[in-house]
Amino acid sequence: MAAIGDVARLAGVSKATASRALSGKGHVADSTRRRVERAAAEIGYIASPDAASLVTGRTKNVGVVIPFVNAWFFGEVLEGIERALIGAGYDLTLYNVPPGGDARAKVFDFFLARKRVDAVIAVGVDLAEHEVAVLDRRDKPVLCLGGRAPGAARLAIDDRAAAQLATEHLLHLGHTRIAHVAGSGAAASPHSVPGERRHGFLDAMAAAGLAPGGRSNIVESAMTMPGGYAAALQLLGQPGVRPTAVVACSDEVAFGTLRAAERLGIDVPGELSVIGIDGHEYAEMFGLTTVEQYPEEQGRLAVEVVLRLIARGDDPDPLPDSGAPLPTRLVVRSSTSRPRR
Amino acid sequence: MAAIGDVARLAGVSKATASRALSGKGHVADSTRRRVERAAAEIGYIASPDAASLVTGRTKNVGVVIPFVNAWFFGEVLEGIERALIGAGYDLTLYNVPPGGDARAKVFDFFLARKRVDAVIAVGVDLAEHEVAVLDRRDKPVLCLGGRAPGAARLAIDDRAAAQLATEHLLHLGHTRIAHVAGSGAAASPHSVPGERRHGFLDAMAAAGLAPGGRSNIVESAMTMPGGYAAALQLLGQPGVRPTAVVACSDEVAFGTLRAAERLGIDVPGELSVIGIDGHEYAEMFGLTTVEQYPEEQGRLAVEVVLRLIARGDDPDPLPDSGAPLPTRLVVRSSTSRPRR
DNA sequence: CTGAAAGCGCTTACAG
DNA sequence: CTGAAAGCGCTTACAG
C-alpha cells in the first residue's frame, strides 16, 4: 500500500519533510505542507501506526481491563472510555477478565507485558502487586476506576458514603426495620464495592442507634436482577416480622427485589420501600429511588487522566488519587415512602 | 526493554536463530531452542508485536465494529468474540459506532484505514459499499455478524423465521388477536433486524388467514425495556378490543410489555400471552417464552471464521455465507398459554 | 525550512 | 541447523 515514500515522491520532497508536514511536528513551509497534504490525500495515504510506534515508543493505544462487558455499569464505563479515546485519536484494546477466570494471567503475563498499549485502565478490578509490576517495568501508567492497585492512580465514587446516604434516606422517612441485600462477597471482602456498600449501610444503622444487624437483615446475592430476585424472595417470604424497607446493593438488585415483592403481593412503597445504588438507565421506568453515579462520564474522565499520565512521562506529578470521590446524587422516585403506621 | 538482541547474546546465538527458536518457525536444534527459551525467560523477553507486524504484515489484532456495548445481545457477542480472540493470541480493538453518530466516518476513514487490524468483525451494522472498499483495498477481510455488507462474509440467524416461529406458537395455542411490538424502523427498513422480524410476524399471520394487520396491531418502539413498556402501555391501554397475545421484537421489549401489563392489571398469561425473541439471560426469571439465539456462541464462531479468512490470504475460497442460518430455538415458559375463552 | 542517514525491533530470504 | 544482511515504514537528530 501507499507508504510515506510515495507521498514524498509525488510531492517532490524527502520522506523526512513529508513526515514533518503530515505530523505537524517540526517546521515546514506552508506551501510545502499543502503540497504534501494534497499528495497524501490523492493516494489515500495514512501513516502506519505500527511503524510510527516503533520509533516513537508510543502506540496511541490504551488497554482496558474489565471484568464484565455485559453489566450495565461496566458497559456504560466502556462506552464512555471508547468515545473519549476515539476522540483523542487513540485505539482501545479490550481485555475482558472475568473474576475467577483463567484469562487473567494470560492477559497480564502476555498481552499486557508486550508493548502494545501506552497505558492501562482497569475498571472495577483490584490488581495484585505483581500485575502492576509488569506494567511499571514497561513504564505503562495504570489507572484504576473503582478498584485498587498498589501505587496506581485511582478514580472512584465513595461507595460507603453512597450506601450510607441511601440508608439515611430510609431512616429519615421513618423506617427502622431496614434490610440490606448485599452483593456477594460483601462480608468477606470489606474493601470490595459490595463490602464498602455493606459498611455504609451498617454505619448509617449504627448512627441511628439501630441494631447493627444480626445476620438476619443482611443477605448476599449476585449483583444482578435475578440475583436480587432470588435473595429478596427469601428475605421477604419468611414468615414473621418483615422489613419495611430494603437497601439494595445495586439498581439491578433493586429491580429484582421489586419483582420479588410483586410476586409476593407486597405493595411498593405501601408495604415496602426499596432503594438502589447506581442510576441504572431503567431506574426511571421502575420508579426506583436510587443514589446515582455516572459511569459513562467516569469513563470519559478516566481517559482524560490516563492521557495526562501518558503525556507527563517520568515527571513526578502528583497522582490524581488525591482528588475527591466522583460525584453521586440521591434521586427520589416512587419506590420509597414513609412506612405505613 | 529487553529486545531480541539481548536474548540472542545471552543464548550465544544470532538474532535470526533466536527469532526462529521463539516463534517456532524454521528449523532450530532442540538444544538451541531450549537455550534461547531459557534466556528469554530469564530476562522476561516478549517480542514487540509492532516490530513483528511491520515485517510480517500481520498485526494479530482484529477490529470489532459494534453499535452498542451496553445492550444484552451486543454485550454477549462482544464477550464471545473477546474470549475467542484472546484464546487465539489475538488482540481486540473496539470501535463502538452508535447509529447516527459522527464516530462512524472517523472510524472507517481513519482508524480502520490504517493497518492496525488484520480483519474486521462488524456486529449488527450494515456497511456501505465505500466502507467495505476501504478495507478491501487493504486486503482486510470483513465478516458481518447480523448485518450485511456488499461482498462480505456473513453470519446470522434467520430473523424472519424466528419471528414467524414465535407467532406460530401463539397461533397454535389458539390466539387470533395477536399484536406485534416491532423495533423502530421495522416498516421503513425491511432488511433490518426489526424489519425482518416484522415480516416474519406478517408471514405467519397471513398464512393463518388472519388480516395481515391494519396498522393497529403493529406498533414500533425502541428495542429496550423502557421502549417496550411505553409501546405496550399504548397498545394495551386503548379502550376497545384488546389483543390476547403480543409478539415482542426482542426479549427486552417483552420485559417492558410484561411490566406494562402488570401496571394495567392485565394478567399474564390469563388475559395476555407474551413471547419474545433472543433468549436474554433474564428471560427465565420473567418466565418469558422466547425464541432463543446464542450470541456468545455467535461471537466465538465469528472469530473462527474471521481467523480462517485471514489465514487463507487471497485464495478464492467459498465464503462462509453459504452456510445455514445460525441456530435458534423456541423455549416455552409461563408467559404464554391458550387464550381464555 | 529541508534532506540524507540512522535506527526503532523484529523476520525472512539467501548462503553456507 | 545457523548467521549476516536486508528491509518492513516510519521519525528524529544532525547538518546545512
UniProtKB/TrEMBL annotation, chains A, B:
It comes from the Bacteria. The keyword Ion transport does not apply. It holds the Pfam family LacI. The keyword Repressor does not apply. CDD domains: HTH_LacI (cd01392), PBP1_LacI_sugar_binding-like (cd06267). Residues 6-56 form the HTH lacI-type domain. This is LacI family transcriptional regulator. It comes from Agromyces larvae.
